[in-house]
Amino acid sequence: MTLTKADIIEAVQTETGLPKNKSADVVESLLEIVKSALERGEDVLVRGFGKFCVNQKAERRARNFATGEDLMLAPRRVVRFKCSSKLKERVNNR
Description:
Strand content: 25-35%
CATH architecture of the largest domain: Irregular
Distance between the termini: 22 Å
Order of helices and strands: HHEEEEEH
CATH superfamily of the largest domain: IHF-like DNA-binding proteins
Low-confidence stretches: none
Radius of gyration: 19 Å
CATH class of the largest domain: Few Secondary Structures
Number of helices: 3
Strand order of the largest sheet: 1-2-5
Shape: elongated
C-alpha cells in the first residue's frame, strides 16, 4: 500500500485538529519549501528521518538496446535520499 499526499493531509488533520483545508495548506507549503531548496541545489536534512541530496551526473555514453544505437546522455542533476540510522532501525523493527 502506498501513502499518498491525501493520506498525509488526513494524518496531519487528525494529529493537529486543524481543518482539512489548513492541513492541506501545511503539507503543500512543506513540499514547496523542500522542492525549492532542491531546485537551488541545497540539501534538505530532516533529523531522525533522512537527507535529500542533489547530485550532479556527468555526461555519459549509453546505448539504446532496442536499436543498438549509441548516444550521449546530457549532464543532469538527480535527487538522492539517504535515510537516517534511526529510520533504518524503525523500518527493520530493531
